[in-house]
Amino acid sequence: MTHFASYSITDKWPAKDPSVIQLYSYPTPNGVKASIMLEETGLPYEAHLVTLADADVKSSEFLSLNPNNKIPAIIDPNGPDGHPLGLFESGAILLYLAEKSGKFMGQTQSDRHRITQWLMFQMGGIGPMLGQLGFFHKFAGKEIEDPRPRERYLNEAKRLLNVVNNQLDGQEWIAGDYSIADIAIVPWLRGLDFYGARDIVGWDEYANLQPYLDRFLARPAVQRGLQIPSPG
């Protein structure tokens, strides 16, 4: 049985209102998935800034909730079966919040499975590949003389972007109606700007991607969620 008090994370990031969902995050592509979803659903929550510094994500308090030391993570004091629930992994959080709110998972069981497959596509492909591309293009990967890692992630990023581009032919959102799959995918597309990698992936060659990004960013809940929690 999970008890709210069993998470020492609340010692380092105390809850002002322990009756609402507690979000522990930072505005990275993975982090904003949770804040955007919370804003989209209207579920009451409280955001806590957890920096990417070891002093935060590797602290014993944060590890009490997420042993994988990555943001985002949540505690819902009103979890299933009448007990509080702590969760990590952004995809798992999106699924949980969709079930809790009854939103952004489609209208039928078939919709749900189609949306879930695109969520898994992001978790297993778009996120890891674009993240590694960003590392090799912008950060320490530039120091590696062997070009093969950079080329590997660049080529895979291009392939995945083409998959998204083709899927968007004739529709506004990746799985039909707006869903958690879009909330998962688009922050990573937006992240290419941060990495300075739009040119190297040939962004302008994918006719459907910029309109997709623009539609997403035009949503008021997305605009709010991208700023939560504020990095200061």
TrEMBL record:
- GST N-terminal domain ranges (all copies): 18-105
What InterPro entries does the entry give? Glutathione-S-Trfase_C-like, Glutathione-S-Trfase_C_sf, Glutathione_S-Trfase, Glutathione_S-Trfase_N, GST_C, Thioredoxin-like_sf
- Top-level division of the source organism's lineage: Bacteria
- Family annotation (Pfam families): GST_C, GST_N
Q: Where is the GST C-terminal domain?
A: 108-232
Q: Which protein family is named in the record? A: Belongs to the GST superfamily.
| Descriptive protein name | GST-like protein
Which species is this UniProt entry from? Answer: Ruegeria faecimaris
